[in-house]
Amino acid sequence: MNHAPMITIQDLSLEYELHYDRTSTFKEFVVNALSRRSYVDKKKDMLLVLNSLNLEVKEGERVGIVGFNGAGKSTLLKVVAGILNPTCGKLTVRGAVQPLIEIGAGFNPEFSGRENIYFNSYMLGFTKAQVEERVQEIIDFSELEKFIDVPVKYYSSGMQVRLAFTIATSIRPEVLILDEMLGAGDVSFIDKAKRRMQSLIDDAKCMMMVSHDLGLIESLCTRAIFLNGGEVAMDGIPREVIAEYRRIANVPA
Predict the structure, then answer these.
(1) How far out from the chain centre does Cα 136 lie?
(2) Is the backbone of residue 83 left (phi > 0), alpha (psi -120 to 50) or beta?
(3) How far, in Å, are 7, 114, 146, 228 from residue 232 at the CA level?
(4) Relative to the CA of 183, which of 22, 105, 162, 241 has its CA 20 to 30 Å away?
């Protein structure tokens, strides 16, 4: 292991545009007046979500990110994963990235489970030959053999989660991005899913994860970052970072 940086973030910021409703017709004006709804004159505002971040994640590191709601945790992971583009600054990622974020969002409800395996696998960058190698393992692990040719719109939410989780974890990335650990459906499936997730973490060269489960951060991560207001409030040993986060949040250990 050469401990070279896998992820390098330099002076990175990201702003969101907040668009406000604006009454533009006489009908809307009357409705607003009758309902005593305030007239919004301001068209939009800017929200600074990430503010001049500078970070490095080296090979071998398992980095957990903690912070309050709206601190920019998930936004940071989406930037690293290439889902969002920063407003300014520089991001360099070395190696293949696999984000486990909003799993199942790409499912087509009209497609069968099998068709969604192919569709989602192509989106993850697999070739047809690679999908063919994995498709039966995905079906077996998800325990959906009897339903695999049924349209996904007829699946329960637990069945959809099983299938999405299994597809997403069928790739072995160098850079693993996790946004909250997955419950992965019913109780009988959870232990198997956790073992698969642990194997995925072990195989990755580095990992960044967000979780509100502080015990999970402490047990899985070698380093933790406390993100507050889009800035790094503390970066260090998970136990110490979590203690500081608890102190500021006024939450007992």
Answers:
(1) 26
(2) alpha
(3) 16, 43, 48, 6
(4) 241
- 51: which DSSP letter? E
Instruction: Report residue 75 CA to chain centroid gap.
Output: 8
Q: Which has more confidence, 32 or 231? A: 231
Neighbours of 139 (CB within 10 A): 18
Look-up: residue for tokens 């545009």? 17
User: Which tokens go with 153?
Assistant: 């719109």
| CA angle (163, 100, 127) in 5-degree steps | 70
Question: What CA–CA distances, in Å, run from 180 to 66, 103, 213?
Answer: 11, 11, 8
Among 3.30.70.1450, 3.40.50.970, 3.30.505.50, 3.40.50.300, what is the CATH number of 103-174+184-202? Answer: 3.40.50.300
